[in-house]
Every structure is written in C-alpha cells, then in structure tokens.
Amino acid sequence: MRPPLAELARPAKIEHEPPVSQDTIVEITGLCQRFGRRARTVTALAGVDLTVRRGEIFGLLGRNGAGKTTLVKALLGLLRPTSGTVRVFGRAPGAAEARTDIGYSPEEPGFPRYLYPRQVLELCGALSSMSGAALAAAVERQLTSSELQAVAGRQARQLSKGMAQRLSLAQAFLHEPQLLILDEPTADLDPIGRRQVRDLIVAARERGATVLLNSHLLSEVERMCDRVAIIHGGRVMREGAIDELLAGDRELEDVFIEVVEGAGGGTGYGPARGWASGLPPAPPTELPPAPPTEHPPWLAP
Amino acid sequence: MSNRARNVLLIARSTLFEQANRRLLWSLAGGALALVIGLALVGLIHPIASLSTQETARLFARSAAGFYTLITIVVLGMGIIGYDLDSGAVIMFVSRPVSRGQYLTGRYLGNALTLAITLCVMGLGTFAVSLLGGRADWTLLYDFVVLAWNAAVVLAVMVALTVIAGMVAAAIIGFITWEVVGNTYLLSGLIRAHEITGLGARLLTAFVVIAPHVLSSPLVAGTSTSINGGQTVFVMPGPTAPDFIWSLAWIVGALALATVLFERRAL
Fold first, then answer.
1. Are residues A46 and A82 in the same domain?
2. A158 in the same domain as A79
3. Looking at A159, A176, A193, which one is the last position of a domain?
4. pTM to 2 decimals?
5. Phi then psi for A148, rounded to 5 degrees?
6. Do A35 and A69 share a structural domain?
7. Do residues A96 and A181 share a domain?
8. Are residues A58 and A119 in the same domain?
9. Residue B205 and residue A141: Cα distance in Å, rounded?
10. Which range, A173-182, A251-260, B164-173, is most confident?
11. pLDDT of B150-166, one tens digit each?
12. DSSP code at position A231
C-alpha cells in the first residue's frame, strides 16, 4: 500500500542510536549580549539558557537576526558576553585550551587568502595539536572526501563559494573534535554536497561527537537533530526533543512559524508582517483626512 | 617546545608561505636587489666630487635601502592582520586553541621574517657592490642589521595601530613614525628657529632626546642640524647597545598593547 501523501512530503528521518551519554557539553546560563553604546545599543541575546548534551545533534533555529550566530560566537569565545555564563566542556570558552576539542565551520568562511587548500588544512590540523603521519593522513582524507583535490592548485581566494564551504567543513572535521559547531553548513552546497554533509554529521555523532547545527533548512534539522531550540529576539522561545515538538504529526516548519508568530514575528525587535513572516501583508493604514490647507492670500485659488 | 611557542611558529611559517604564494616575498626581494645594485652602480659610474667612489656607492645604496625598507614596512604592516579581519580568516585561527596574542605574535613574526629576507637581499647586494669598489665594506652589514631592527619596531607599532585604527591609518601613521623618528635631529633646530617655548618645547625636546634611542637610524647617525650661522644644536646619535634593548622593549610593549586591545574586540 502506498504511504499517504503527507508521509511522502515529510523527509524520512535518519534512524540512529540514542546519544552516547547525557553529560552536558555546553551550558549557557542567562547569556546577554549587547552591542553598541547608549542610544545605539542592540540586544542580540537577552538571557539565553541552553544545554547541549554529549552525543546529540542539537539544532539551533531562528529567523535572520534572531541571535543564532551571536550565540555560536559566544560559545567560541569570539565575543565577551555582557552578562551570563558560558561553559564548554566545563570551561569558559575564552581560554584557548577550551577550544581544543571544537571544530567550527562559520556561516561565511574566511581563510588566509593566499594559502592553498592543503596548506590551510595542514595549518588547521597543526594548530589543533596534530602532527606527522596522523596529520598527513587526515589532510589527505579530508581533501578526498570534500572533493577539494580538484581545486588543489587554487588559492583560497580563488575558490568558489561552494568550494570554500567544503574547505570550511573539512577544517572543522579534520581533527575529529568532540564538539562540532556548524553554522549554516550546507548553505552554498549543491544537493549532493548537502547529502554528503548530512552523512558526515551523522557519522560524527556515531563516533560520539556532539553537533550544534545552526540551519535555516528545517527539513535538514528535522531529519538529523535530536533536540532543537528556537531562538527569537535573543531568547530561547522553545526547546525540546524533536519528537516532542513534532508530536501529532506536525512539521517543524509549522512549529517554527507558530513560535515566531506567537512571539510577534519580525526578528524580535519589532513586529513584522509580509512574506518573511508567513502572514499576509499588513493592510495599508488609513490616514486621517488632511486638514484644509490655508493658502496665503497671494496663492489663494 | 610549548604549545604556545609552537602555535606562534606555525602561524609565522604559514604567513611566510602566504607571502611566497602571493609572490610578494620574491617581488620585494627582487625589487630591493635591483634598486640597491642599480643605484650603487650609478654611484660608481658618477661619483660625487667630494666623496670617493666607494663612499658614493655606499651613500646611494643606503639611501635606496632606507627608502625601500619604508615601502616594505608600509606594505607588510598594513596587511598583517587587516586582511584577516576583513575576510574573517582571523576566526579560523582563534576558534582553535590559539590565543589572540599567539595569533598576533605569529603574524608579526611571519611578516618580520619577510622583511628580514628582503633586507638580507638588499644588504648582500650592497655588500657585493662595495666589493666592486675594491674593498669589502663590513660596516654596511652592521647598517642593515640596525635598519632591520628599526623596521621591526615600526612593524610592531603598526600591528597595534591596525587593531585600533584599521589598515589605512596604520599605513599612514607607520609612514609618519618612520619619517619623523628618522629625522628627529631636525626638530631641535625647528624648536629654536620658531622660538617654541613652554610645555611644547619641553615635550619636543624630550622627544628629540628619546626618539633616536627608539629608532637609531644608521642612515642619519652623526647627522647634525645647525641654525644661526652654523651653531650645532643636535647631533643624531648612532645606535648604542642599550638602544637594542629599548627597541626590544618597544616591540614587546606594542605587541602586548595590541593583544590587550584585540582581546576586547568582538569578532
């Protein structure tokens, strides 16, 4: 018997073993992050509480400007939080040693412009305490699996967006870190590349790694993640296991829109309607009739 | 070797690779050699009447070296971390177990090495030219060591400037630093000629006294400035051994300041 249409429309969930253990890898308490001074202050995070457990794939969802990337940067010690605490592997991420077991692929990857992909990977591996034959083998493996061999003769500045994304992912996976933080990892990839990245993420979890996935592709999140947090206006609006959120045959997109619209749409800093919110455009505001203009005598009709 | 030192050396090495890949290293070295040898040959062919052929060649070659070093410092200094900040490459470094201080120091060392290679080529070229004059001029090599040391100080100052003010400002201030400090001996004449008094005069005089010990340019060592009918008011001293210690302190201080400022910066 053919499955119902609704079942076909929903992407098949990748079956996996439950997380290896429930230890906390990331612990964020009351995190606030403000930028600018006085009147120009922008609040990017307004009291985020979040935990990510060992061995799970954790999805971070939110609209553009919701604070996801700021949160990721706080985890890496790239920002100094205005208040609150961040602990990664039980340590403050500002300390360089706390980042030993982290692999990070940013949304907009940047590399030393004149290095070749192999040199980038060798440098990244060496900075993550790899050396000798192990480093050479890991670099070779990543160059092959990321299909970067084809562009081995190009410098980083000459790579296409997709290839730069592959290089970014390759350097993140290179040293087999315990925590992978992937910010829009498939944004610039073709469908085959996306599938390869999904396989890599699932394989990383199978070896016991924890993955923090920041993505706009809800179908991807729905397929891979164990738990999800929806951020809006710098706050975690909903957090839970994906199965709980999708109880009653709901789709993640429905849950996401419900949460965001329930919080007032927009990026959280003001109401928004229109194509991005899923709501119809706001009706034009009717202006009160203009008062009769008093013309000066020399312009009187 | 500690992890910190290893990280610094790895970043310095990759910076050197980068300069080689972009052909900047070879362009600088080749350009330097061509300029020094070219000018030195001009000096050999057309000696200044009051100087010997060898002295003319040496004067020309040293002038070329000073000019070219300044260009090299500006080109290298403005991009030490400026390009990384623009492209986001800095995140690739500091999202790993690398502190911002290690990153800055590594980038600084890599660029200082590039500069050192350029100066080596210039120094050897000038030395070779001095051999054409009939006698090996060993003082030239000492001059280049001092020149490299000065350049290292300005490069460190430019690292701090790039963190605070960006690439263009770093280039301009680096240029001014080199030019002003290199010509400090002119300032004391200026103070007297314009009859500057009070706090302004005291500050300028202090600068005149201190600056040559920070950047003791061999190019103007022993140069004097005079006003009022030949009255010598200041002679630019040559570098002394303690000056090297002072310069080292400036390098460490500039890099430490850059690190403190960089730590506070959101990436």
1. yes
2. no
3. A176
4. 0.80
5. -90, -10
6. yes
7. yes
8. no
9. 63
10. A173-182
11. 888 888 888 888 888 88
12. E
Q: Give A121-127's long-range contacts (Cβ < 8 A, gap of 24+).
A: A121/A167, A121/A170, A121/A171, A121/A174, A123/B10, A123/B11, A123/B14, A124/A171, A124/A174, A124/A175, A124/B92, A124/B96, A125/A174, A125/A175, A126/B6, A126/B10, A127/B7, A127/B10, A127/B11, A127/B93, A127/B96, A127/B97, A127/B98
In a domain, A8, yes or no: no
Does the beta-carbon distance from B92 to A128 stay under 8 Å?
Answer: no
CA-nearest residue of chain A to B264? A80
- Whether A121 and A65 map to the same domain: the answer is no
Q: What is the pLDDT of residues B112-162, one digit of tens each?
A: 999 888 888 888 877 777 776 667 777 777 778 778 888 888 888 888 888
Residue B224, chain A, CB below 8 Å: the answer is: no
With CB atoms and an 8 Å threshold, state whether B264 touches A78: no
**Contacts across the A-B interface (CB distance below 8 Å):** 91
Tell me which residue range forms the domain holding A141.
111-176
What's chain A's length in residues? Answer: 301
Q: Which residue of chain A has the CA closest to B3?
A: A129
Domains of chain A: total: 2
Within a domain: A289: no
* ipTM exceeding cut-off 0.90 for this assembly: no
Total domains in chain B come to 1
